Amino acid sequence: MPWSLAPALSAFAVLSGVLAVVDARTRRLPDAIVLPGGAAVVLLLGAAALATGEPARLAGVGAGALSAFAACLVVHLARPAAFGGGDVKLAALCGAVLGWGGLEAVASGIALAFLAGGFGAAGALLAGRRGESIAFGPFLLLGAWGRVITGL
């Protein structure tokens, strides 16, 4: 992974920590954090693409954001009470970061998020928390970071 990607991943790490805590506590992903933070990460990804001499990576970042957004929008439209609009916007951000590594990285990162979310929901049921919602944002971030750590 190129060093020029470090600022984007650092910003994404800070944003991930903040959003995971906020979502876990409130079950909300506020636009006031997601949108400007996401824009900063995307700008830093663009700067990294130019710094590495790989401007084509911008297409991957855009395609990743769009594909993750579209996939999660379908889930949101099917079950709006279970999968919120904030999750859809966060998925777009995660898709942008994962898009650096290509669409396979996006697909596997989002799939990992849903797998982790399923385990989290099962754990909540086993703990007797039937009927309670779980925050999905932390699982989206876990899936994205799992894929980033194992290699974009």
Provide tags for this entry:
mainly alpha, 152 residues, 6 helices, single chain
Description:
With about 150 residues, the chain is mostly helical. It has one domain. Helix content is about 75%, strand content about 0%. It is built from six helices and no strands. The model has no long low-confidence stretch (mean pLDDT about 95).
The tally of helices reads 6
- Global outline: elongated
- Structural category is mainly alpha
Distance between the first and last residues' Cα = 8 Å
Strand content: under 5%
- Total of domains: 1
Summarize the amount of helix as a percent range: over 70%
Q: Please write the string of helix (H) and strand (E) elements.
A: HHHHHH
Number of strands: 0
For the sheet with most strands, the description reads: none
Mean pLDDT across all amino acids: 94
List the uncertain runs: none
Radius of gyration: 15 Å
Question: SSE layout and pairings?
Answer:
Elements: H1 6-26, H2 31-51, H3 57-78, H4 85-99, H5 103-126, H6 137-150
Short recap of the structure:
With 152 residues, the protein is mainly alpha-helical.
